[in-house]
Structure formats: structure tokens, C-alpha cells
Amino acid sequence: MAMGIVWSIAASNINGGAAWTTAYVKPFGTIFIKLLQMLAIPLIITSIISGIAGLRDINKLGRIGGRTLILFTVTCLTSTIIGVSLATAFKPGTAIPEQTKTALMHSYQEKTSGLIETAQGNTTNAMHMITEMVPNNIFYAMSNNGLMLQVVIFAILFGIALTKVNTSKSEIVVQLIDGLNETFMQLVMLVMVIAPVGVFALIASISFDVHVFLSLLYYMLTVIAGLAVILFILYPLIIKLFSAITYKKFFKTMQPVFLMAFSTSSSAATLPVTMDKVANGFNIKKEISDFVLSLGTTINMDGTALYQSIAAVFIAQATGMELTTGQLIIIALTATLSAVGAAGIPGAGMITLIIVLDAVEIPIEAIALIMAPDRLLDMFRTVINVAGDACGAIAVFGMEKKD
Ligand code: ASP
Description:
binds aspartic acid
């Protein structure tokens, strides 16, 4: 597989190869992602409902939910603090030549306007964000990638209601949902048969502008260094604190999940694989891991939060803005919130980054400066996002076991 990836990146960069790859190789990657996305919503709904019905105890659900939310907040906030600290220490924004800035602003002008337009229809403040979590039409929510949190809320409410229904009536519903959940998991296994082709096609069809990369290398390395701190320091600490799982085992079990996240840039599309590997690979009670992972895929994005905090500080530095300590704190807090608001789909983090920029009055048009390497950084941050969800599932299960 590794050789295939190296070959495919090389092939996609050879002149003429790119057009051929787009026409004949990319579609296989698209088919693969579509199949995974097709399974994400049915899996979230059936797993959450069957998980809550299996717990049969609202207090237990409240405790698990509370622990999950606290853990997610702590890791996300820590990630943004790491991001802000690294960006302030390394100052990647000051390393970018004036000429490159002008060229980037010019080349990405059109894309920037499109992005700002999309963001304007999005969540812009905390109260709006809360109202947006509540579904009014579950079918609409299910058919919109960005509304996954509404689907999660619906499934939680449905699960709670089901525990209150008389067993003579609820049993059949629970059995049906359990059966559906198992069927969807089997479907995941079927889709995974084509994973090697899908992953290969996805990676082969990515093309990068190496020249722009070089000018933004310092910024990219700052983001990658921050992501590495989360993956190699923060998560091992959490895993060690709450479980007996060694980090070597964590990595080994998560390898296929990481590869999937890296090639699809979508934690939602990766969810079916994450669910399988986390529950079976670490022997975690399925109802707990499915619940934490479903919630995590929609709200827990440590990689995205770190990326947003570094990007915001980078843009401020590049545009000559001096950020005060207060503004840096606001960046860390809003990046935590806007990462929650980002959907688990490619490029979502860049859209909600506008919330962070807006909060400290950094000119949003300057987002053009960081557009070029976003696709690549998205691949890396999605890996951290799914690793964070798995780490959350391990920790919450560990806490439950201790009780
Ligand atoms: N692509 C990321 C994910 O799916 C979200 C982002 O754009 O940061 O987790």
C-alpha cells in the first residue's frame, strides 16, 4: 500500500498524468468516499439509539455524556493553546515575503469570496450555534452533511424516549434497530473490500502546487508540529491515564483508520471504520465507543481547532497585526467553538475559521493567504480529529470501568 501511495503521488505529478488520473483514477476514489458517506448517517442513528437502549439507564447516559463533553472540551482547548503558543513562538506569518502575499491574495481572490459567502450562511455566534443544533426536520438534517449534529441530537432524544416505553412495545423496536446496526456494520465490511483501490485512487488524484508550498512551508510545518504534539504527547498521556492500552497498540490498531482519514479528509466518511476498529481493536463496550465516536465525529476536532488557532495567528502576523494576550485568548476560545461547528467533511475547518478571524477583527479576505496548502493540511488534521475521537472513547470507557 505504501509503495502504491508513493507511486500514485509521483504519477499524479508527471505532466499529462494529472488529466488522465482525474478522468480515470479519481472516480474510483469518489465512489469509495460516497459509499462510506452513505453509511455514516445510518450508522450514527442506529448506534446511538441502540447504545442508549442498551444502557437502559438515563443516569448512566448522563454520566457518559457529561464525561465525553468534558474530555472533548479539555482536549480541544489544550489543542488551541498549543496552536496559539507555537504560532506565537515561531512567528510563521512574519516569514512570508511581501511579493508572495500579493500573489496569493490575487490568485485566491475568487475562491475567498465564495468561502466568505458560504460562511455567512453559517453559524456566527454561540446562541445561533445552539439553536442550529436542534433539528426541525430530521430528513432534511439527514440529507445535509453540515447538519450531522442535529442527527445526533435526534438519535439521543429518540433513544431516551425508547427507554421510557413499555418493554412489550419497545423490545421489537430495539431489536429492529440492533439488527439494522449490525447490517450496516456488515455493509462497512463489504465496502472495505475496495478500500485499497479507493485509497490509492484518492491519493493519486490529489495535485499540489509545490512552488506555493515552499513559500508557505514555515506555516505548514508549524501546523504539522502542533498536530504531532497532540498525537505523540497529549493523546498518549490521556490513554495512559485511563487505560492499560499501550501507545504502540493504539497506533497499530488505528493505522487503517488513519489511512482512511488521511485519504478522505473526512472524519464522517471515516466513522464506519473508526467504529469497527475502536470497539473490536481495544475491546471497548460497543455502546460506549459508538456513542462517543458518533458525538466525537460531529463535535470533537482537536486537529481542526489547532489548525484554526495557528492559521488565525499566522494571518494576523502576515497582515501586520499585533495581537494582544486578550486577543490570543479569544482566538483559543473561539477556535474551540468553531471546531465544534465544523462538519466532518473536507475543507469544513476553513469555513468556520472565519468565525475566529471575525472575533478578533482579522481581515477575513486574508484567508486567501492560507488557501493553497489547505487540502494537504486537511489530510493531516483529519487524522488527528479521528485519533482524538478514539482517544475519547478509550478514556470514557476507562472511567466507566473504574466506577
Ligand atoms: N476535514 C476535517 C474532518 O473531516 C474537518 C476540517 O476541515 O478541519 O475532520
